[in-house]
Amino acid sequence: MLAAPQVSAFLPPRRILMGPGPSDVYPEVLAAQARPTVGHLDPLFVGMMDEVKSLLQYAFQTANPMTVALSAPGSAGMEACFVNLVEPGEKVIVCRNGVFGERMRQNVVRLGAVPVLVDSPWGQPVDPDAVESALKANPDARFLAFVHAETSTGALSDAKTLCALAKSHGCLSIVDAVTSLGGVELRVDEWGVDAVYSGSQKCLSCVPGLSPLSFSPAAVDKLQARQSPVPSWFLDQTLVMAYWGGGKRSYHHTAPVNTLYALHESLRQLAGEGLEAAWQRHRDMHLILRDGLEKLGLKFVVDAAARLPQLNAVYIPEGIDDAAARNRLLQEYNLEIGGGLGDLAGKAWRIGLMGYGARRENVALCLKALESVLK
Amino acid sequence: MLAAPQVSAFLPPRRILMGPGPSDVYPEVLAAQARPTVGHLDPLFVGMMDEVKSLLQYAFQTANPMTVALSAPGSAGMEACFVNLVEPGEKVIVCRNGVFGERMRQNVVRLGAVPVLVDSPWGQPVDPDAVESALKANPDARFLAFVHAETSTGALSDAKTLCALAKSHGCLSIVDAVTSLGGVELRVDEWGVDAVYSGSQKCLSCVPGLSPLSFSPAAVDKLQARQSPVPSWFLDQTLVMAYWGGGKRSYHHTAPVNTLYALHESLRQLAGEGLEAAWQRHRDMHLILRDGLEKLGLKFVVDAAARLPQLNAVYIPEGIDDAAARNRLLQEYNLEIGGGLGDLAGKAWRIGLMGYGARRENVALCLKALESVLK
């Protein structure tokens, strides 16, 4: 027998999470998650899932019946959109202005589908004119895929305009709302978004591990008209919906019961505050943070017009050691901010104001702690 | 704006979970899960992940460096094995003696690979002689896939013999240990298991949502020698290992931080008890339960020699209404037992004695409550 390792209980400190996610979790969510586990087919649990669905429909502003929380993180949500909707050989216009647009491209390629790239410089939003040109040049394209709020740069793209362009060219839209949901305006039905996914650990301030997902009726039609089976059994939404849908609940996989308690509670907190109030709070906190960062001499990566309130990317000043500075914030202040990702690695910091994390006390702490490490 | 739904906090009762999983969760695990969320790249969290890995290696009895907890349930663990190791056109011998062997077949087919089925009747273990014949008849087969502990029937197959057969015919073995890990003997290295996956919510008595997974060096070689990219980005173990592996932790996806706290604690409980002591406890509790069930006149689906201690499938006596009886157990005793699945739906109950759930008080409650509803 291999011997049992001697391991102590893990007792994490209380960090203040102001990176790109996970964000500060509502205390009520942590408490909800610790409630007793019930069976995934227990009638009480099934009733709670119905509530999660209606709370997700509210957060997405959609009446889509196919609205669920996938039992896996946001990157599985991205994959679920592509793997269910896109068939081998189909053309997908992929907008790439950061890490997550590139990940979309990789998903398309792995499926044997054909990506058409619309590139924008890192830190800029997707360019609707370039998208329109690509749509015109590729009349056989079936999808337009883009990231609403690019977590790697802090740029907000104009999802409303982009989805309208997709529709007018006969394309379905696939939208990454991982960092946008709950933090900035997102209106799935009004804007005509066809497939959208998010993550539990950003502006919903839930623990990480789940991916809210919603398909429009047009997306469901596309799924049902597939010529080939969905290549992934786990992510096949026709099977998932047999469990999440109304009526008889068919076993598909064991739902992550306690994490769904957590999501239920975080969505309840959002509904209690109100979506528009939450969007406003993110803007308000961002403005205070922005003023403070500018006073410290920090420059934003993204122009004001496209700046995400919930993700503030700023260049690291010359002469400051990235890792050492972030380590001091963590060790001395229990404060986590994010490093740069991809092209911005080592060059920028990403300061999150997400969900429950977007509070005055966090902004104040962050500014004071940064002032100290920038001295 | 769509209006916010009015939803109350979800306050589940304390159920006693004696179905096929989720099982009764250790109270220490629920407490661990509620600890403050830290970042998935926080040095303290990364240290905890190293401990999870060594605890998983202990539970699996393996030194495999590629041992991780996937950020999704056991069915994603199954898919991860097939999607990483099996390429289109390759032949896989799939043993089918219940629901989960059939699910393996579906995974193989969706990948464009070729399943060769070895069927055994429901309730019986996989037949090594039939497997050997299939291996001889298919010298071009690359894999042997089977379920160690079939959750749909309660049958235990002889994994040691089957893996030895696979090896002697040049096949890699893919083993479903969802219900076996922690409940019955499983020795990954000694038995030569090449790819094995499990679930957090069975005999580990953690909350549902994670899938422990381990690949042997031979399986890693097969993965690295692939001609085609892994079709799934989310499940691509070459990417996952860049995060779970030693050295620099590369961001792949946001780990389910709090659920990993829970798994860490549940594995710590198992290591504290000792694996062999846990196996013995499952056997001991099973014998007491078996005697009581037989006194109530209930007949087992599986012969004694292949019976899983942690999953007791018994036929529903004639004249007893399945749904009504289970509903009474739930409403009057807060006791959940499982219904039948697949061929056994409506015909059998599945009584779980998994992990923390395998205790004298649970056995006593279950027997007394069953006595009452069978009257």
TrEMBL record, chains A, B:
<feature type="binding site">
    <location>
        <position position="350"/>
    </location>
    <ligand>
        <name>substrate</name>
    </ligand>
</feature>
<feature type="modified residue" description="N6-(pyridoxal phosphate)lysine">
    <location>
        <position position="202"/>
    </location>
</feature>
<dbReference type="InterPro" id="IPR000192">
    <property type="entry name" value="Aminotrans_V_dom"/>
</dbReference>
<dbReference type="GO" id="GO:0004760">
    <property type="term" value="F:L-serine-pyruvate transaminase activity"/>
</dbReference>
<keyword id="KW-0808">Transferase</keyword>
<protein>
    <submittedName>
        <fullName>Alanine--glyoxylate aminotransferase family protein</fullName>
    </submittedName>
</protein>
<comment type="similarity">
    <text>Belongs to the class-V pyridoxal-phosphate-dependent aminotransferase family.</text>
</comment>
<dbReference type="InterPro" id="IPR024169">
    <property type="entry name" value="SP_NH2Trfase/AEP_transaminase"/>
</dbReference>
<keyword id="KW-0663">Pyridoxal phosphate</keyword>
<dbReference type="Pfam" id="PF00266">
    <property type="entry name" value="Aminotran_5"/>
</dbReference>
<dbReference type="GO" id="GO:0008453">
    <property type="term" value="F:alanine-glyoxylate transaminase activity"/>
</dbReference>
<feature type="domain" description="Aminotransferase class V">
    <location>
        <begin position="35"/>
        <end position="339"/>
    </location>
</feature>
<dbReference type="InterPro" id="IPR015424">
    <property type="entry name" value="PyrdxlP-dep_Trfase"/>
</dbReference>
<dbReference type="InterPro" id="IPR015422">
    <property type="entry name" value="PyrdxlP-dep_Trfase_small"/>
</dbReference>
<dbReference type="InterPro" id="IPR015421">
    <property type="entry name" value="PyrdxlP-dep_Trfase_major"/>
</dbReference>
<dbReference type="GO" id="GO:0019265">
    <property type="term" value="P:glycine biosynthetic process, by transamination of glyoxylate"/>
</dbReference>
<dbReference type="InterPro" id="IPR020578">
    <property type="entry name" value="Aminotrans_V_PyrdxlP_BS"/>
</dbReference>
<keyword id="KW-0032">Aminotransferase</keyword>
